[in-house]
Amino acid sequence: MPRANRLILAHIWVAVLAFGVAAAMAVMQALSRANLEVPYRSARMYYMSVTAHGVLMALVFTTFFIMALGYAVAQRENGEIRWLRFGWIMYGIAVTGTVMAAWAILTFRASVLYTFYPPLQAHPAFYIGLTLVVVASWGWCASIIASWRESRRRRGESPVSLAMHGTTANAMLWLLATIGVASEMLFQLIPWSLGWVKTVDPLLARTLFWFFGHPLVYFWLLPAYVIWYALVPREAGGKLFSEPLARVTFSLFLILSTPVGFHHQYQDPGIPAAWKLFHTFNTMAISFPSLVTAFTVVASLEVAGRLRGGKGLFGWIRALPWGNPVVSSVLFAGLLFMVGGFGGAINAAYVLNSVVHNTAWIPAHFHLTVGSAAALTFMGACYYLVPRIAGRELELGLLAKVQPFLWFLGMVLFSFTGHIAGLMGLPRRVFATDYAGAPQAEMWHTLTSVSALGGIVLFASAGCFVVVMIATLLTGKRTAVVPIEWAEPLSPPAGGFRKGIWDRLELWFVVAVVLVILAYAVPVYDLMHLTRYGSPGFKPF
Amino acid sequence: MKIDLYERVWMWGVGVMLALFFGSLANASIRHGFHPPSHVETIDPKKVFQNPLFSRQGVTVDAGGAVHVSVVGMMFAWLPGEMVLPAETPVTFHMTTVDVIHGFQIVRTNGQSMVIPGYVSQFTTSFKPGDYLIACNEYCGVGHHTMASKLKVVPKGSWQQPGALTSTAGVADAAR
Predict the structure, then answer these.
(1) Residue A390: its pLDDT value, please?
(2) Alpha carbon separation from A262 to A283, A348, A349 (Å, rounded)
(3) Contact B45 A535 (CB under 8 A)
(4) Across the interface, which of A202, A271, A349 has its CB nearest the CB of B25?
(5) Do the Cβ atoms of B142 and A541 come within 8 Å?
(6) For position A32, what pLDDT does the model report?
(7) What does the pLDDT look like over A73-98, one tens digit per residue?
(8) A413 phi and psi, to 5 degrees?
């Protein structure tokens, strides 16, 4: 086994365990919102579990899986990972940070949700732990960028592989995005939670958080796109419809992901309307590469379906290998993402946002994006990667086959009802939805009950995934370590592709920085020059 | 770079679609004045009840006849707990909080704003007659789901101007 594979598997272990705990937290929440009496149900428990679910799913599961995938891509690219020891040190830091944050959350010292808006104040271990995870991820970014430079040097006039290109764009995007949350942690929350400063400005903290919070979405999504473009067409039996355009989309994500944060703050006071409208414009622009991705990925799947003998306008869809969980998870992820993507355009709509902001619509929306487009793709990718990297056969293959179907069903039940309940005004993140018997709250009841049913189905699906992974990692029959194979382009030019301007990620990074300055410098300067009054910490949990 | 014809058609198609999306939003906001609440004003969260705007919470009518509502958020209540407003009349809400962040949401309307300590939020909207629930839509602690108040909207003709609004100073003192 190549030495790097142990590091990749170590990351997979943390991702799978975090996912399992987070899924258990989620089923309890879904039942609670349906006003069902479950054991240990209490408001305190509920808000703790929302925090644990959010942090473990959105920050821990995703980050550890993304780092594992990135190392696997770099390993495939160069035959080795640069700075393996350094990688292990970063892994140690990330695990330490995760344990600190998890301890604070599970002992009820940090029920501040995964957005941790001050002046709600968590235990310092929560903030320091999450900061350590981010610091470790910077180490990962450095290692990825070093691998990318090495591959570029080695390949001369040909470009690096599409997967390496996408992974590196993601690492650079992450370095830019995390400036926001790192500043919030280091200059505001950590000194404040330790008592070194008395007060913090909550609006500045929100602005720094959402500077990070929206590109975080693309940090989740780009690895999914790497899998959709570079892995799935081949696994489905076809080829990648268009490789050059895929490169362009990754570079566009690097450029456009960050200067959009105010679309999470439309309802905030203290930020002038004109700046919010400017971020709306950028947000519409960032939809473009996703819509292009939709075309190219569906076209690639059609190529696969037709090569497998599918005929007619839609016959190719049935011909796809729905029994292969690597493919079916991506097919369902893509279907759900089409709905989630349009919901996202509604959230981003400057004018419509007032109807859906902070309602049940929002978690329903992001369970289709991060919870399906990203998480379901990651699960599908695990069925492909883990056997190859561990050198073991996939165990309990039947459960793996069923799992994406269950996820799709559960998500349809959970998310569609959530969207409707949100339009009917149900706030998000509430322990109970009866509002002391208010008549306006009665119409939510059926919807939250169906949603709870969806939660149970999702939990069953999550259980399948965790059991398959643990069984494979521990007891799967040993086989040879097989390398990852990337999809081939449909019509490569004679002599192969040549490096082009869209391959110059360092250039697009600079462009991204300029856009960020345009979008944030003036409003943040103006905010800092208001007569501001800070807030002391509150711990109402 | 060679791009397939179908891809070029698709790219133009989605490009035009996104331009239409943004165009309609810009049109609604610039020509028709629809904006999310974006008022810029700060306030000392420790001295909210000394501020003339918030020392009394509830409905007032200014010299020009415009209707205003002052709301203070706190864990876990909105002050005032009940209010009556006239239908089909522009009403300006002013909101702030004495502790953590709250979200003021009039359920099933587009009237909502984040309420952030140290800042004054403001929006103007009008209502159809009926009974409305006002909820908190930003997590504010263990009692978040109980934070609510009531709004009754009556036909314009039968609405009484709250000339002699009962003082809520007692509530405000208790809150401090």
Answers:
(1) 95
(2) 9, 9, 12
(3) yes
(4) A349
(5) yes
(6) 84
(7) 999 999 988 899 999 999 999 999 99
(8) -65, -45
